[in-house]
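re: ur question from earlier - yeah i can do the single chain one, its not a big deal. heres the input i used so u can compare w yours
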Amino acid sequence: MEDHNLIDQLIDTYHSLNTHVRTAADARLQRQPATGSSVEAIVRSMRDNELHFSQSLKERVSGVPVQPAVSGEEAPVIGTEADEDSTAVMIAQFGSAREVTLALLRGLPNAAWDQAGEGGASIRAAVSELVASDQRQLAAISAQLDGGTPPESGRRELQ
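and the output i got, formated as tokens:
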């Protein structure tokens, strides 16, 4: 099923971050390239985006509004973020938020994946965009670390 493929791709992203990025030296992750963002900044953005996505999905599935601290312009808070967080810590925080997303998605009935929500987008469309965003971010990370593009599956190490 297409939803299982999307779930697998979401898992692949976290696996790629864990196996490839977490093991890199902090100096490499913090290095500011001539163009674009540092790996650390990309991971921070991925973490923040995942926290927003997870909270929005939770609200949509449960019908319970997100906490005010999460729904505004400010970055979401899971209670452990700090400006000085290392990339490894941010990857762990990303993983915690991604697991919430995965648990919610795994519990959805098939029909719920295609129901239009506010703004007209289905959960399937939103998850597909999240997967596409993950792939763009992993490609940018790979370009920073290796000068290349990530493999088709995040279950293999980025070369």
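The CA atoms of residues 79 and 93 lie 10 Å apart. not sure if urs matches, ping me
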